[in-house]
TrEMBL record:
Keyword presence, Ribosomal protein: yes
Assigned keywords, A-Z: Ribonucleoprotein, Ribosomal protein
Biased composition (Acidic residues): 122-133
Region Disordered, annotated ranges: 79-133
Gene Ontology MF terms in the entry: structural constituent of ribosome
InterPro entries in the record: Ribosomal_bL17, Ribosomal_bL17_sf
A single cellular component GO annotation: cytosolic large ribosomal subunit
Span of the signal peptide: none
Biased composition (Low complexity): 81-93, 100-121
Protein source organism: Pyxidicoccus fallax
Protein name, UniProt field: 50S ribosomal protein L17
Gene Ontology biological process terms in this record: translation
Keyword Ribosomal protein: yes
Protein encoded by which gene: rplQ
Family: Belongs to the bacterial ribosomal protein bL17 family.
Length: 133
């Protein structure tokens, strides 16, 4: 209904009148509420669940219009803009360089892993020898 009121055309007013039969309420919607939400792209209501009703234990909720403006910090905007630019500009690296670097990195990683394993085994043996003595 608020989206129809934001558009403000006669057709939209008649569409809202199909659902809300009171002309005063429709006038208030178009004249006061819609201008407040003119710069908002949806998310007009807040739904807060409350305790179930006594007696029949029916689920209850409070539905209210969101009056505060949406606040998006400059950091969030900058982060989103940077992510969009990074996604738009693909990394252009020659395939030959990438292929040449990959085996070298694997060999270095394997060598480091073997050295770490040997060091760990030597420390474990030394600890066992001290415990036996």
């Amino acid at each position: 209904l608020i989206t129809h009121a934001k558009k403000g055309a006669l057709h939209n007013r008649r569409e809202v009148m199909k659902k809300i039969r009171d002309k005063d309420v429709v006038h208030t919607l178009f004249a006061e509420i819609a201008p407040h939400f003119a710069d908002r792209e949806g998310g007009y209501t807040r739904i807060i669940k409350v305790e179930n009703r006594k007696g029949d234990n029916a689920p209850m909720a409070v539905i209210e219009l969101v009056r505060e403006k949406t606040v998006v910090s400059e950091a969030d905007r900058a982060r989103r803009a940077a992510a969009a630019q990074a996604a738009a500009a693909p990394v252009e690296a020659p395939a030959e360089e990438a292929a040449a670097e990959a085996p070298v990195a694997e060999v270095e990683a394997a060598g480091e892993g073997i050295a770490d394993a040997q060091t760990a085994e030597a420390e474990a043996e030394a600890t066992e020898d001290e415990a036996k003595s």
